[in-house]
Amino acid sequence: MLSGFLSRKKQASKNKQKYYSGETIHLKIINI
């Protein structure tokens, strides 16, 4: 159960990183 929680947490952080990198790219396009 704990390992499942950790893997979900890891997946969530991975999705968050993907989201934030997409946001920064979006902001860079706006700034150009």
Structure characterization notes:
There is one protein chain. With 32 residues, this protein is an all-alpha fold. Helix content is 94%, strand content 0%. It is rod-shaped, with a radius of gyration of 14 Å. The mean pLDDT is 74.
Name some characteristics of this structure:
32 residues, mainly alpha, 0% strand
Return Rg in Å.
14 Å
Summing up helix and strand content along with how strands pair, one would put the structural category as mainly alpha
| Chain-averaged pLDDT | 74
Helix content: over 70%
Q: Assign an overall shape.
A: rod-shaped
Q: Say how many strands there are.
A: 0
Contiguous runs where pLDDT drops below 50 for at least 5 residues: none
What gap, in angstroms, lies between the N and C termini?
47 Å
What is the percentage of strand-forming residues? Answer: under 5%
Order of helices and strands: H
Count of individual helical segments: 1
Mind summarizing the main beta sheet? none
Summed up:
It is built from 1 helix and no strands. It has 32 residues and is mainly alpha-helical.
List the helices and strands and how they pair.
Elements: H1 2-31
